[in-house]
Design goal:
- This protein is mostly beta strands and 430 residues long.
- It has a 19-stranded antiparallel sheet that branches.
- Helix 4 runs antiparallel to helix 5.
Length: 430
């Protein structure tokens, strides 16, 4: 997350993760920084995501709605364990035996960007609505989408140390799937150019506009609306918005996959066993910029040997699943207050977040009809709690909104951090 005291630096903080400019300078990690990263945990992960909708258009009538939209999404994520920074003074080979589990260090990275064009359709299920009494209404909607993929990489690196006669016996292995300029960058880094030169040669601001693969996806859902009390809005000719209702919804999103076929590559490397008297130290911070892992290992005195026998195993196209999610929700609306509960299950997270249920609860207040105020609380499968605040300006023909989600990562850490920022959104209604 980004400290809320530094939100004015948000664009500069986020840009390097998605618009490559240069590799980060090696920075020595301080104890304070390591404590901030790991706290009392043995693993640290960071995921940066963005979503940009430059254009969307919808048509709505009494019984159905149609839409078209263009969206760009990006992800930069990494995970590493605390062992990466433990020193020989903190871990002694004499404390281990050959029967013990190896002392393991790992560093994994994912990066992907894709653009999608979707067509949406929603309408009442009139047959169902005629079967049941009352004014209850069932709506169904679906949105197929075509996906055009930018760069992609999924890199897994592991270094295992086994105790043997008071010494450390080490083996290392790397597995990588890449496509686009990241694959070209790795090729140059391995076979010719130094890291910074290879980076400048291969990464451009428009690297993610090159189409490296194609895919298809689907979003679909159901909403069941129960009007409450004397709210008869559904009977009116113009279908005025309900003011008193209970809604239940079910949806599945990002059901689909992407096939990467432009400069695809599968890389691997495994070193021969090496013996160390002392556990090698690592002191440099890792930031998680695209392509950084390859430079980070190459500039480390003890880890750069992974490149001695690295090979490109194949150049065949490969498939990657979209981050499919299941959504279950309910909304209770009464006049100027609405409360919601949402359960969201991650089947295959795009980053290194845990699989499982994401729980969210929130409230919207419309004390002034044109000024909705929102607040929420969220619990992730990683047991992280965050709080959301937002507001909007609803003038019927124009709608502006913004929100921020903040969290306090550890009880013993000062300050709050923004882990989600929704920049100004604009809708024009005709």
């Amino acid at each position: 997350g980004l400290s809320i005291n530094e939100l004015d630096q948000f664009p500069n903080q986020v840009q390097p993760y998605f618009i490559p400019a240069s590799l980060p300078q090696q920075t020595v990690a301080t104890e304070e920084q390591l404590q901030k990263m790991f706290g009392n945990e043995t693993r640290f992960f960071q995921t940066q995501k963005y979503e940009l909708i430059p254009f969307s258009l919808s048509w709505i009538n009494n019984e159905s709605a149609r839409s078209v939209a263009f969206r760009t999404r990006g992800l930069s994520s990494f995970e590493m364990n605390r062992n990466w920074f433990l020193t020989d003074n903190e871990v002694s080979s004499n404390a281990y035996t050959e029967e013990d589990e190896p002392f393991n260090r790992f560093l994994n990275e994912k990066y992907q960007v894709y653009h999608e064009f979707s067509i949406g359709f929603a309408r009442e299920v009139t047959m169902f609505n005629r079967w049941q009494a009352g004014l209850n209404t069932l709506l169904i909607g679906f949105s197929p989408k075509a996906i055009f993929a930018g760069m992609y990489s999924d890199v897994r690196y592991q270094s295992n140390y086994t105790a043997s006669n008071g010494m450390w016996e080490n083996t290392r292995q790397l597995q990588a799937r890449t496509s686009g300029d990241i694959d070209r960058y790795l090729f140059d880094l391995v076979f010719s150019d130094p890291a910074e030169q290879a980076y400048q040669n291969r990464f451009q601001k428009d690297s993610n506009l090159e189409i490296n693969g194609y895919g298809i996806g689907l979003d679909a859902g159901l909403t069941y609306i129960i009007p409450l009390g004397d709210d008869l809005s559904l009977l009116s000719i113009n279908r005025a918005p309900l003011r008193k209702s209970l809604r239940f919804s079910f949806a599945i999103t990002d059901l689909g996959l992407v096939r990467y076929n432009n400069n695809p590559g599968a890389w691997s490397s495994q070193t021969d066993p090496r013996t160390y008297e002392h556990l090698p130290d690592h002191t440099s911070l890792y930031f998680g910029h695209p392509g950084e892992l390859f430079q980070y290992l190459g500039e480390d005195v003890s880890e750069h040997s992974i490149y001695e026998n690295i090979e490109k195993d194949d150049i065949y196209p490969f498939f990657v699943q979209l981050p499919t999610q299941l959504h279950l929700g309910t909304v209770f609306q009464y006049q100027w207050i609405s409360s919601m509960l949402d359960l969201n299950y991650r089947f295959n997270p795009s980053g290194f977040e845990a699989k499982g249920w994401l729980y969210s609860a929130g409230t919207e207040l419309r004390l002034l009809d044109f000024l909705p105020l929102r607040g929420s609380i969220q619990l992730s499968p990683d047991k992280l709690v965050s709080y959301g605040i937002g507001a909007a300006l609803d003038l019927n023909f124009i709608y502006l909104s913004a929100a921020v989600r903040i969290m306090h990562p550890e009880d013993n850490e000062p300050g709050w951090y923004a882990n989600t920022v929704s920049a100004l959104g604009l809708q024009i209604r005709i």
